[in-house]
Amino acid sequence: MAKWKKVTIALSVGIMMLALAGCSGAKQETTTKPADKKIVLGFSQIGAESEWRTANTESIKASAQAAGIELKFSDAQQKQENQIKAIRSFIQQKVDVIAFSPVVETGWDAVLQEAKAAKIPVILTDRSIKMSSGNAEDYYVTFMGSDFVEEGRRAGKWLVDFMKKDNEAVNIVELQGTVGSAPAIDRKAGFEEILKQHANYKVIKSQTGDFTRAKGKEVMESFLKSAKADGQKIDVLYAHNDDMAIGAIQAIEEAGLKPGKDIIIVSIDGVKGAFEAMIAGKLNATIECSPLLGDQLMTATKDLVAGKTLDKRIVTKEGVFPAEVASKELPNRKY
Amino acid sequence: MIEMKDGHFYGVTIDILNRAAPLMLLAIGMTLVIATKGIDISVGSMIAISGAVVASLIGGKLEYVDGVKTLITLVPMPVAIITALLVTTLLGMWNGLLISKVGIQPIVATLILLVAGRGIAQLITQGQIITVYYKPFQFIGTGYILGLPFSLFVVGLVFGITFYAVRKTALGMFIESIGINAVASRFAGIKVSKYIFSVYAFSGLCAGLAGLIICSNVSSADGNNAGLFIELDAILAVSLGGNSLDGGRFSLVGSLIGALVIQSITTTIYALGVPPEITLVVKSIVVIIICLLQSAKFRKIVFSKWAQKRGIPSEKNAAKL
User: Fold this and answer.
1) ipTM associated with this complex
2) Exposed/middle/buried for A290, CB within 10 Å: 0-12, 13-18, 19+?
3) Any idea what the Cα angle at residue A69 is, between residues A65 and A71, rounded to 5°?
4) If we measure between CA atoms, which residue out of A208, A288, A224 comes closest to residue A262?
5) Each residue's pLDDT tens digit, B188-197
6) Domains of chain A
7) GO terms for molecular function, please (chain B) (predicted)?
8) Which of A69, A49, A51 is nearest to A60 (CA)?
9) CB contacts, 8 Å: A181 with chain B
10) Rounded to a whole number, what is the distance in Å from the CA of B255 to chain A's nearest CA?
């Protein structure tokens, strides 16, 4: 037995050494740069949390290929530590540009300082960051993506225009995104900004649905029941993304109410599922938040490598889609 | 709090029962695993796999041909369901094999699947959320029989069979004896590795069923988020039910109550309107209080002093006398 153990250990050590040797060989190849070397972009994606995120990933992958940029793609599965790990490995691999979509706003100080020390430019996509000390803007070259506060405002404006109620009380329930994430904070802030000008609109309940269908449904179920117990009527549902709204729609139907009629629903993102729900008359409006920023990202990467300076803020093009235009718009949707 | 609506019961209590169903299923499987002094932390990933398999087999394509909805199903629903359950049972067997035959520690062996499982689920779904438009499938997670959620009947059936197997046959005794002392049990003639193998396979089956319910409830499979961290809730449910993680004596009913307690806390937090920033803190405080109340030592320290003040002799003093 003991003898066999030694043999297996020796064998496995041998295999590992071979594997490691193989790795270092490969590494050398990449460090000796050919004359017309490809631009390397390291991108750390949050994870596949929704159809929106998937479209975002696909757009970036497709654009990278079209632009001839080598993309090192890493999926963080919604965990900050995975993203930090990915960014560190990008720094080690000496990529030309690092881009990432931060899963939460804070906690990036150390890793971005490392990137800065390594003189690798960092692009933020669709979510912004905050630093515990110092100016966050010193640590990234540009923030590319949607303006979440504006999306919140658009949702608020659409609602006020749609309801056309100036004096009657309008009770709103809100499904927030992941606690601490930029879209959740900003979409809440933008929406509230508009509601402030209309005292009769009131958010009576607000809870996180983690941007997922399952949680959105579970929280909505509970909203419906507790509102009933308190003798309140829910007039409007405002969801920070379409997937939570889709989950909530199921909860509303199970409660015997008609989503889109008994409860007016407005959500953000504009995924295909939302358009299908609008065609079925179950969702009233979706505020677009376009994930298709791949082309813009690749242009920015090329500009950076060419030594151009970029604007600190690049905003993606977006619109508002009420239910009336849903069936016309659906075939055009890419996500 | 309960009323009738559309021919079924409707209310917070029903919500808690329906929502707790997947957790109760996991807790049943987990109780047996823990009773053998093991642990299975891969159940969350198996839920994701089960959902992914069933959703991708039934087929998520809804196509508009000239404005008419046409649904494409790949295989009949029963086949899809059986395949999903078979897959998770096989994965459970894999866990069992690693633990009982290869001799890897349970937490390490199941950790492999915890990490790899989400990857497998994402491979199956290709990283997307798959929506199931096939109506009959939604019955598992949202349907009602005799006014009660269908998922509860699934729990009831699994519980009934398990309870019968462990309490009316010698199986329960064997499992307990393995948990207390596996070596002694082997010498006593119990086929230890066979039973250990079986409890992990069973836990996989339970996770598969839970995955079907979760997937069907929202009619979609989400490889990334379905059943995320639920393994921790399942372990918590088992321990809240008064079962020791050291194995040995176990109570299935206790675990079910533990699962219901956890879901009640969650639902109550939503209903009370606790700000989302602090819901997890509130949840953990409640759990700490429950655990403290369950600890015999803690009860002795706190309540014996209080009893002394009132002149009631505590157990310790009574022993001295």
Assistant:
1) 0.82
2) buried
3) 80
4) A224
5) 999 999 999 9
6) 37-145+292-316 (3.40.50.2300), 148-289 (3.40.50.2300)
7) transmembrane transporter activity
8) A69
9) none
10) 22
